[in-house]
Amino acid sequence: MEDCLIKSKPTISPKKVVIVDSQIAPLLTGYRKVDGGYEYWSKLENRMIFERDIERVVDKGGKLSLSNKNISNFSQISQWYTDLELSTITSLIIPNNKLRSFEGIEAFPNLEELDISFNLFDNPDLLQKTELASIDVVILKGNPFEQKISSEKIILSKNFVINSPPPCAECKCNRSPAMVENYGVLCKNCHASKKLKEAVEGISLYPQPSFIEQLFKSLGKLLEALGIKGTLIAIVIIYFLYVTKCG
Ligand SMILES: [Zn+2]
Q1: CB burial class (10 A; 0-12, 13-18, 19+) of residue 198?
Q2: CA of 161 to the centre of ligand 1 (A)
Q3: How far apart are CA 186 and CA 169, in angstroms?
Q4: pTM value?
Q5: Ion ligand 1 nearby residues (CB, 5 A)
Q6: How close is the Cα of 193 to the center of ligand 1, in Å?
Q7: How far is the CA of 103 from the centre of ligand 1 (A)?
Q8: Ligand 1 centroid to 183 CA: how many Å?
């Protein structure tokens, strides 16, 4: 048998983020941009406050692609990495290799996608392996057991893919029948971020964002102008006004 062709440590795709400016600091007076965020002087706390920039993830990374490497065992991949590194791998794309067993797949605890298309898997019973159940998409096409699955009419779990459903309309990633059923035209991740975005927009629609900004600005300026003593006096006055009006 030919040797595995991985001769040096393969690179796991890195996470990519873009820096989005902090939302609150610019609304206060006297802020300045510093490395990694904003700084502003708080009269209230009598110190400089550092507010970190917000990172927005544009690519979550964690992808490892190794095709045509004569891989016949998952340990030929996992041996290059520490447990911590293995835990960052979410997508393992290894088509056109010589795998026929899932032995050693437990070394990759956080897989969301596994592409083992065009390998040598021939026994459909192997698909019962518990580690496979937690992976969102397992691409099986082009393996010898594909024939058995269709001739013996074996019903596959909905995270297994032989005939690929249309890719995600947003990120173009591979999807499983389960995703088509649960998320329409999206994948699990895009569906989750869409829901999150909707929730955030729902909050900021009422009251109007400009009103909130104005409120923060005025409040910030007021507190700065008053200082600690002034703020305490103001609170006391407001309290007495409240008591006399309600009492
Ligand atoms: Zn997507």
Answers
A1: exposed
A2: 16
A3: 6
A4: 0.71
A5: 168, 170-171, 173, 187, 190
A6: 9
A7: 29
A8: 10
Burial grade of 207 (CB within 10 A; 0-12, 13-18, 19 or more): exposed
What does the pLDDT look like over 79-90, one tens digit per residue? 999 999 999 999
Q: What percentage of the chain has pLDDT greater than the value 70?
A: 90
Q: Where are the domains of the chain?
A: 60-164
Q: How far is the CA of 128 from the centre of ligand 1 (A)?
A: 27
The one-letter code for the residue type at 231 is T
Residue 130 CA to ligand 1 center (angstroms) comes to 25
Angle at 9 between CA 136 and CA 83, to 5 degrees: 55
Q: Are 129 and 108 in contact (CB under 8 A)?
A: no
Q: Tell me what the pLDDT averaged over the chain comes to.
A: 87
Task: Tell me how far the alpha carbon of residue 26 lies from the centroid of ligand 1, in angstroms.
Answer: 33
The CATH number of 60-164 is 3.80.10.10
